[in-house]
């Protein structure tokens, strides 16, 4: 298959983790005879530095003329600590999501058997957890009218949703549940918010078209608690933009590290794949960033184009790396030798030689003695 992939590494650790995902995709292309073409462009703080625009026109044009976008991370502390900044890196990401019509953000959350003891939650609670979060991505409070009074003392952000905006993501969530454990949980705040009551009405109607799928409802405050108390109760979680942002970071604790969580953002025409973690400025260039979320985002990209065997191979490589503890310090604090690119090299190597025990790889890269 021929795919034009726009690479937007962005800020902080974005470039280093994206490089590892590209390595994995190039290995897949060579093993399966695909033609993946990568073209890189700037987004976020780096684009502000260069062009005074977090999403330059050339970047947006590149995304629109590509089959898929592989995104790294954006953000820089100089903007986080300056509430008066008019231009912010995050605006680039939000505009990109809106311009590409990426209304559904899918965030899988899984407890890896080899990492059960890495989570601060008890093993019994998280073992077997397998959740797919469907977060609405182009509406709600993120995109509603924003106002600040002239004296700067009153501010407001409008949370607005329309029926079609809810219907289109609800259909995707129900379709996904049909292939999984047949359950959708709508997370909202319908006891307080009018917009949440609209979500309940519309989602209840959509559910009628999927009789094999059970629909239940949870208020977001309760859902936040249930995510910690009993995450296994969830299959597909459907929710609006900001609740999805919050609950997915919370859910990442189940996997043992936010550095493992990938995501796919899809619309009617375009698709983008990105780790859910941020730019982690303190780690930039140190080789300690976990590339797995980016590599798994690349696997989601392959799935999106029905290259499921290829995606599975990447996932098998990730699982093998976790099993062999070829992992960055967020999940393997004992090892200071395993860098971001060593994890990437291992997974690349696995793609080329999935049957190999990889002992050789470990010996060469980790400087261990060869016992042959
Ligand atoms: C995410 C991030 C973004 C969001 C930020 C960087 C704007 O937290 O993708 O979850 O809030 O959507
Ligand atoms: Mg977030």
UniProtKB/TrEMBL annotation:
Cross-referenced Pfam families: Iso_dh
Enzyme class: oxidoreductase
Annotated Mg(2+) binding sites: 221, 245, 249
Reaction(s) the record says it catalyses: (2R,3S)-3-isopropylmalate + NAD(+) = 4-methyl-2-oxopentanoate + CO2 + NADH
Family annotation (PANTHER family): 3-ISOPROPYLMALATE DEHYDROGENASE (PTHR42979:SF1)
Protein name: 3-isopropylmalate dehydrogenase
Listed GO MF terms: 3-isopropylmalate dehydrogenase activity
InterPro entries in alphabetical order: IsoCit/isopropylmalate_DH_CS (IPR019818), IsoPropMal-DH-like_dom (IPR024084), Isopropylmalate_DH (IPR004429)
Binding site residues for substrate: 97, 107, 135, 221
Record-annotated site: Important for catalysis: 142, 189
Species annotation: Winogradskyella vincentii
E.C. numbers: 1.1.1.85
Keywords annotated in UniProt: Amino-acid biosynthesis, Branched-chain amino acid biosynthesis, Cytoplasm, Leucine biosynthesis, Magnesium, Manganese, Metal-binding, NAD, Oxidoreductase
Species lineage: Bacteria, Pseudomonadati, Bacteroidota, Flavobacteriia, Flavobacteriales
Protein localization: Cytoplasm
Function recorded in the entry: Catalyzes the oxidation of 3-carboxy-2-hydroxy-4-methylpentanoate (3-isopropylmalate) to 3-carboxy-4-methyl-2-oxopentanoate. The product decarboxylates to 4-methyl-2 oxopentanoate.
SMART domains: Iso_dh
Details of cofactor binding: Binds 1 Mg(2+) or Mn(2+) ion per subunit.
Quaternary structure note: Homodimer.
PROSITE patterns linked to this entry: IDH_IMDH
Pathway: Amino-acid biosynthesis; L-leucine biosynthesis; L-leucine from 3-methyl-2-oxobutanoate: step 3/4
Residues of the Isopropylmalate dehydrogenase-like domain: 4-347
Main location: cytoplasm
Similarity comment: family membership: Belongs to the isocitrate and isopropylmalate dehydrogenases family. LeuB type 1 subfamily.
